[in-house]
Design a protein that fits this description.
The chain is α+β, with helices and mostly antiparallel strands. It contains eleven helices and seven strands. The chain has two domains: about 180 residues, no CATH class; about 70 residues, no CATH class. The chain has a four-stranded antiparallel β-sheet. Helix 7 crosses helix 9.
Length: about 270
């Protein structure tokens, strides 16, 4: 951790209790890695849409140190990386909430605290959470306090911090998933805003409890690493039987006569990693 990082973190009033998770996923697996995605996020090749922000405002933001101008001698079209574009969208949103430029600059300092000239990332934290927003369905938020103090985090970590009063102040919440989705127009980035805090098995069981026709759900654990989820459907229509059976990946079907009536039973077998 460099001196700039230590200085910023020492002034923090609000904390997210995700130290072990952060060290594993960001510090160990992302910050010092050679992932090509970091180069892609920081390749300067894109222009801003004309209706996003005027050239005059961009020039003012550059003079205030919020964004940089990488044009030779300041001439030609302004171009930005994906990461810079997303940061500019965050600035626009913060300005929309009335935050002044000095406080927004403090947000930028937070995004830069792990910067190294050996890495292509101008904003390492932002790049990390952009990747999370594109590769998982969890909501990612940039929360900004009145002072300009900022935190990028998964929503579930924010929820825990609020529950245990580790966040003391009110804040502006910016939905990074939505901004990223706008930046990747050819990719449909899905976000789970309801069940994001649940494990895979919790999501699967919750979803299927209310599934039409399910009579029983059986859950077993195999060697502590994998769940086996067996679900039994009872159907009285052969047409519905075939329709459901064709949708399921691993399932068995049987028919049983009850008096003059025939019912059909489908057992679905799923394996879900913990």
């Amino acid at each position: 951790m460099n001196n700039k990082t230590k200085a910023y973190l020492s002034k923090k009033r609000n904390f997210i209790p995700n130290v072990d998770w952060f060290d594993e996923h960001f510090t160990c697996n992302f910050l010092y890695s050679d992932f090509k995605v970091k180069e892609g996020l920081n390749e300067i090749r894109n222009t801003l849409a004309k209706d996003e922000v005027t050239s005059r405002i961009l020039t003012h933001w550059q003079s205030e140190g919020l964004i940089s101008d990488d044009r030779p001698e300041g001439r030609g079209w302004r171009k930005y990386s994906i990461s810079e574009q997303i940061w500019i969208k965050c600035i626009i949103k913060l300005r929309g909430f009335g935050m002044d430029l000095k406080k927004i600059k403090r947000v930028k300092e937070y995004l830069e605290i792990y910067y190294s000239d050996k890495s292509p990332s101008k904003y390492p934290l932002l790049d990390f959470y952009i990747v999370l927003a594109t590769s998982s369905e969890e909501p990612v938020k940039l929360i900004v306090f009145q002072t300009g103090e900022a935190i990028l985090s998964l929503q579930r970590h924010i929820d825990i911090a609020l529950q245990y009063k580790m966040i003391e102040d009110d804040f502006i919440s910016i939905d990074l998933n939505r901004i990223v989705n706008e930046g990747f127009k050819n990719k449909d980035i899905k976000t789970d805003y309801i069940d994001y805090s649940k494990s895979n098995i919790e999501k699967e069981v919750t979803k299927n409890i209310f599934e039409k026709g399910i009579r029983t759900i059986k859950l077993t654990i195999d060697n502590g690493n994998e769940y086996h989820l067996d679900q039994e459907f009872i159907i009285d229509s052969k047409r519905e039987l075939e329709g459901l059976f064709n949708k399921l990946e691993f399932a068995e079907k049987k028919e049983k006569k009850m008096g003059k009536k025939i019912i059909y039973k489908i057992t679905e077998n799923k394996r879900i990693r913990k």
